[in-house]
Amino acid sequence: MGPPPDGGKRGQAAIQTLPARAAAAYLQTPMDATPGTYDFTAFERRWQERWLAEGAFRAEPASCGKPKYYVLDMFPYPSGAGLHIGHPEGYTASDILARYKKAKGFNVLHPMGWDAFGLPAEQHAIATGEHPAVQTRRNIDNFRRQLRMLGFAIDWDREFSTTDEDYLRWTQWIFLQLLKHGLAYVSEKPVWFCPALGTVLANEEVLNTPEGPRSERGDHPVERRPIRQWVLRITAYADKLIGGLDALDWPDSTKRLQRNWIGRSEGAEVTFRLEGHEASLTVFTTRPDTLHGATYMVIAPEHPLLAKITAADRRREVEAYVAAVRNKSDLERTDLADMKKTGVFTGAYAINPVNGASIPVWTADYVLMSYGTGAIMAVPAHDARDWEFAQQFGLPIKQVVGAPEGFDIRKEAWTGDGPLVNSPGLEGLPVEEAKRKITARLSGKGQGRAAVNYKLRDWLFSRQRYWGEPFPVLWVSREDYARIPADSKLREFLPTEPVTCMLEGKEACAVPLPATKLPLTLPEVKSYQPSPTGDSPLSKATEWVDVWVDLATGETASRSAARPGDRWAAASRETNTMPQWAGSCWYHLRYLDPRNRDSVASKEALTYWGSPDFYIGGAEHAVLHLLYARFWHRFLHDIGVLPEPEPFRRLFHQGLILGEDGEKMSKSRGNVVNPDTIVKEHGADALRMYLMFLGPLEASKPWSSEGITGVSRFLRRLWRLAVDEQTGGPSARLASGAAESEDFVRELHRTIRKVGEDVETLQFNTAISQMMILMNTAEKSASVSRDSLEAFVRIAAPFAPHLCEEIWSRLGHRGGVAAAGWPSFDPAKLVESTVEIVFQVNGKVRGTGKMAKEASKDELLAACRAHPDVQKFTAGKPVVKEIVVPGKLVNIVVAG
Ligand code: ANZ
User: Fold this and answer.
1) Closest ligand 1 atom to 374 CA
2) Whose CA is nearest to atom 29 of ligand 1?
3) How far, in Å, is the centroid of ligand 1 from the Cα of 362?
C-alpha cells in the first residue's frame, strides 16, 4: 500500500481529534489510516504470530474423542528459489478444507515438512563447496517463513525434514525390512546413466524424446551402462498395486497412468524345441490362439541362448548385429513410429509345438530382453511389428484369424477378433475361446502354461550421490558372512538368501546393520563431485567406508587400526545413497507421531489417524511418488506395521498456474509470479482467495494481476460491512434496527449451503462467486443483523482467515472464528416467498409485480388492475375477459 495521494493531510487532521495515546498508536499505522482501516499488513502478521504462539492448529491427541480428519499436502522440496505460486495453490485448497473440517468439529491434522534430500542442494554444494545441509537449512527457513506468511493452519509441532537424523533412522529401518523380506537386491544390469548429472536414473526418470532418451530432470542425454545398483522388487507388488486402484477416490487419469505403467498382460508361455539342441526356447505371448500362424521366432540380441544356438556360418553376422544394437535404448528399439526393422537369421530352427512345423529363429532388436522371456513367436498375419519384419525379410505370412471381407492380409496385419481359421481343433472359435482352449491343451502336454507379464520393472533404488540416505549395510566376504554367529545382532534384518555383488573382483555379501545402529549418517567429504566412472562421492570417504565389524554385535571400528579381534571382519560400507523418492514414500506416516523413538509411529496414532483422508499435489507425481509410496505402504501393511493397505484414499491434483501470458511460468520467460510480492501488495488473504477464484482447482489457468484486485476489493467490502471506518468497532449498520431484506436472508442461507457443499467437493471458485453474490445482496439490504454477518464471516474464514479472525475479534469474540463452528442453514429460508407476476393486456406484457407466492386470484387481479402501465391500455375500454394463472401471470383482454 503506497502513501495516499493527498500526502497524509487527512491523517494529520484526524490526529488532532484523538486522545494522545490513541494518536501515538495511530502514528504507527499508515498515514491514511483510521482505526477502521483495512490494514492487512498489520493484522495478518498479528494473527499469524498469535496462531503460532497459541498452537492454534495443533492436532489433538487420539484420546480427544472427536472424529479425525487428516489433510495432507505433497511436501515441498525446499529449493533455493523459495515457494513457487503453484505451491500456495494446492496448500490453500487443503487449508480451506482443513479449516472447514475443524469448524465442523473434526480433530484435524494438517502437517507440513520438507523433502530435503536431492540433487539441487548437491549441485549447489559442488559449485560452492557449502555443505548441502547448510543450504538446505537456509532454504527450509525461507519456505517456513513463506508458508507462515500465507496463514496456513499447519500443526508446526509436527514439522520434520527427510534429512533429519530422526527421520533418516526410520527410512533406513524400512529399507532393512524390505531387505529382510527379500524385496531388495543388487543388480549389475545396464541402467540409465546420466553423465551430466553424474548418476543413474530410474526408468521413470527417463523420457523418450525425438533426440533420444533424456533425463527428466535437467533434460540431459542418458545412456545405458552396467553399474552395480540396489533394486527394490516392486514387481512383486504389481498385482496388488493394480488391484488396489479400484477402491481409490483418485482422478481417473492418474489411475489409468498407474495401470498402464504397471502394464499387466495376460497370456501364455509356450515352449518350442530347437532342432539339434538340448535347449528349448520359451516365449511369452498374449495371443496363444495364433500359434498355428507362427512362421518364425525372434530372440533378443541379449538373450543368453543366442550364442549357443547360432550356427557357425551365421556367427559373424550375429555378433556384429549384437554389437551394433548394444547402445540402443529399449525406447528406440520399440518405437512404433519407426517401422523399419533390423535383424539377422541365427541359423537355428524351432519346432512349432502345435503342428511340428520347422520355423527359423532370428534375432532382432524389436524384441527386448527385459520383457516376458526375451523371445517371441512371430505371427506376421496378426501382429503389426511381425508383419513389417516379415515383409522386410521375405518371411511367410499365414493367416489364422478370419478378417472381414475385403481385408487384405498382404497389405497389413489383422489384429481384430474373428473365427479361427487354418488351425485344426480351434477352427470357428472366437479369439478368447481359442486362447483358453489352446492354453489348456499346451499345459496338458507340458508345452506351455497361462502366464501374466508386467511392463513394470523393479525399482532402481540407488544413486551415486552424496546428499541422500546412506544404505545401512556393510559388505563382507562370503567367508565372513558364513561366520556370523547364530545369535548375532546382525541377524535382525538378515535376508533368508544373501544379497551378493562383486566388489573389486570378489564376491561380497550384504550385512544389514541392526536397528540399534541406526541412523547411519553421512560422513563429511572434501568434494561432492561424483567420479567420472560413476562412483558416489562417498567412495572417497575411506575412513567411513572401510571398517572392521564385530560379527556378533555389529559394532564397527576404523580399518586404519589393527583388527580388534577374531570376531571382527573387514567390511566396506555401501557408497551409493537412496533416491529422493525414499523419503517421500512414508512421510505421511511420520506426521502421525513425529517424535517417536521406538517405531515409525505408535500403534495408537496409526490406528486413530490411519491414512490421510485427503491428499493434494501435482499430477507430475502420478507414477513416481504415488506408485512408490503405495508400494512401501502396502509392504508395511503386509508385515503388520500398518492397519490400512493404501496410503492415499482421496487424491486431487491442482492445475498449473500459468503466467499472465498463458505460458508456463519460467524465469527465462520472465512471467514468474512471486508470492512474496503479491502478499506485500495485496495481503495473504487476497492471494489465497484469488488462487481459489482463478478457476476450477484442477484446471490450468493463467494468472491475472487485475483479477487479484477484484478479489481484494471483495475483501475490503466484507471488512466495511462489518467494521466501522472511524471507530474500528462493529459497523453501525449491524445495530441499525432496520429489517434485513428478504433477498439477503435467502441468499445467506443459500450461501451457507453452497459453500459447505463446494468445499467438500473442492469447487472453491464457485463458493467464492456465491459469497460475492451474497455481498451484493448484503450491501443492498437496509440492515445486516449481527447473526447474519457472523455467519457470513464464519463461512468466509477458511478462505480469508486473517480478515475473518480480525472481524471476529472486533465483533467482540475472544475465541477463534473456527471455534464458533460452521453455521447451519435453514432449508425453509431457501425458498423464495415472492414471485414475479407478469401483467398483460391482450397478451402483451405491460408490467410486472412482485407478489406473495400464495397470493389469491383476486389479489393478483387487483394488483394487475392497479398497475399504472396496465391502466394506460385498459382505460375506458370494456373488459372482455380476465385470465389469472397463479404464480405466473394475469392477462386482461379488452375490446377495441
Ligand atoms: C505372438 C503374437 C501374435 C503376439 C499376435 C501378439 C499378437 P503386450 O500386450 O505388450 O504384453 N512380445 C513378447 N515378449 C516380447 C519382448 N520381449 N519384446 C518385444 N515383444 C514381445 O505384448 C505381448 C506381445 O508382445 C506378445 O504376444 C509378443 O507377441 C510380443 F497376433 O506373441 B505376441
Assistant:
1) 17
2) 285
3) 15
Q: What is the tens place of the pLDDT at every residue in 883-892?
A: 999 889 999 9
The residue whose CB lies within 8 Å of the most ligand 1 atoms, and thus the one to mutate among 261, 264, 376, 382, is: 376
- Tell me if residue 131 falls in helix, strand or coil: coil
Q: Is the pLDDT of residue 732 over 90?
A: no
Task: Give, using CA atoms, the residue closest to atom 18 of ligand 1.
Answer: 367
Query: What is d(CA 249, CA 88) in angstroms, rounded to the nearest whole number?
Result: 23
Pocket of ligand 1 (CB under 6 A): 265, 284-287, 290, 367-368, 371-372, 374, 376-377, 379, 382-383, 453
For 781-793, the pLDDT digits (tens) are: 989 999 999 999 9
CB 510 within 8 A of CB 196: no
pLDDT tens digits, one per residue of 325-368 = 887 767 677 766 666 889 999 999 999 999 999 999 999 999 99
List C-alpha distances in Å: 127 to 123, 132, 523, 580.
6, 11, 19, 20
Which grid coordinates belong to 91? Answer: 496448500
Q: In Å, what is the CA distance from 217 to each residue of 134, 202, 600, 694, 790?
A: 23, 11, 31, 29, 49
Contact 51, 148 (CB under 8 A): no
Instruction: From 264, 284, 291, 297, give the residue whose CB has the most ligand 1 atoms within 8 Å, as the site to mutate.
Output: 284
Most informative mutation of 286, 325, 417 for ligand 1 (most atoms within 8 A of CB): 286
**Mean pLDDT of the residues in the chain:** 92
- Measuring CA to CA, how many Å separate 676 from each of 83, 88, 93, 211, 468? 9, 11, 19, 38, 30
CB proximity list for 693: less than 8 A, separation 6 or greater:
707, 711, 764, 765, 768, 769
Q: Range with the lowest mean pLDDT among 105-119, 207-221, 440-454, 860-874?
A: 207-221
pTM given for the model: 0.85
Residue 266 Cα to ligand 1 midpoint, Å, equals 11
- As a whole number of angstroms, the distance between CA 366 and CA 156 comes to 54
Which of 291, 296, 336, 371 gets mutated to test ligand 1 (max ligand atoms within 8 A of its CB)?
371
Residue 328: exposure state from Cβ atoms within 10 A (0-12, 13-18, ≥19): middle
Strands 229-232 and 184-187: antiparallel
Distance 851 CA to ligand 1 centre (A): 74
CA of 407 to the centre of ligand 1 (A): 23
- Say what the pLDDT of residue 22 is: 42
The set of cell numbers assigned to 546 is 572401510
Please give the Cα distance from 753 to 826 (Å, whole number). Answer: 9
Q: In angstroms, what is the span from residue 404 Cα to ligand 1's centroid? A: 23
DSSP state of 185: E
